[in-house]
Design a protein that fits this description.
The complex is a heterodimer of chains A (about 210) and B (about 10).
Chain A (H helix, E strand, L loop, with lengths): L2 H24 L7 H15 L9 H24 L14 H13 L6 H15 L2 H10 L1 E2 L1 H28 L4 H12 L2 H9 L7 E2 L3
Antiparallel strand pairs in A: 1-2
Chain B lengths: L10
Classes of the chains: A mainly alpha (about 210), B little secondary structure (about 10).
Amino acid sequence: MNLFRLLGDLSHLASILVLLHKIQTSRSCRGISFKTQALYVAVFVARYLDLFWRYISLYNSAMKVFFIGSSCYILYLMKYRYRPTNDPSIDTFRIEYLLVPCAILSLIFNYNFMPTEILWSFSIFLESVAILPQLFMLQRTGEAEAITTHYLAALGIYRALYIPNWIYRYFTEGVIDPIAVTAGIVQTGLYLDFFYVYFTKVLQGQKFELPA
Amino acid sequence: GNPVPQHDEL
């Protein structure tokens, strides 16, 4: 564990707490892509079910339980409790364009051709693009509530912090994980446009609005 | 070393 990874994980944790706070206080999931949230459930289940056969640390296990539990709870809130506030007509990204290529990539790029490793690769590839339905929705509506942008920023910062973590681990432990690093760089890259608007507008007190 | 990384990251 190093500081970059710890801060990254805490940022990930914070992003989910911000999202839950937004949904609970506004009693609405307006502006949140159900498809992205469903993809995160798939990511967490595919990767973290190793809870049952791989023990790393109490920290690691507790985080895995939290991520699986909270992501399922968010889906429940969107699908049942606050269903009327969820508008599928603007959540139109075709997720099969993400699922199928990720499935194929995970069959080609994995560390061992066995179900658990293929699932692990699949979850890494899928996580890297899972935010696309959400960003696509933002692009369509052209604006977002401030709290939704804080959620996205925390999620993007989490990914960005994993990059110095890998650099640090490479130099201190000689560890390199090419699949996670490649997917992680792609994933962070997807946030660049968003970060630009977030840092130049939202943090200056302006509304999050994309140029037409 | 081991060709399969530990997967100790979240």
